[in-house]
Amino acid sequence: MRGTASRSAAHLHDPRSEYEFAHAPADAPYIRVERQCLFRLSRTNAVIFSIHTQVVRPESLTPDQAQALAEHPIRQAD
Prior knowledge:
About 10% of the residues lie in helices and about 35% in strands. Strands 1-2-3 form a three-stranded antiparallel β-sheet, with no helix packed on it. By secondary structure, it is mostly beta strands. The mean pLDDT is about 80. The protein is built from one helix and three strands.
């Protein structure tokens, strides 16, 4: 399992090309989180790749989630 997070000024559907992408400021109104998983099916040995995306406002985080975000802040990729 792998997870990524980024700051966003847009809702979940953000139809910009990769060339129009710019990192949102640290005070952006949303946090976009992806959870990526690989599963192997026991009978067929097929591999399934799943992505679950959530967009949340920072103020809606639980205390535990807010603490985890404070301990592991979102970094901007180069």
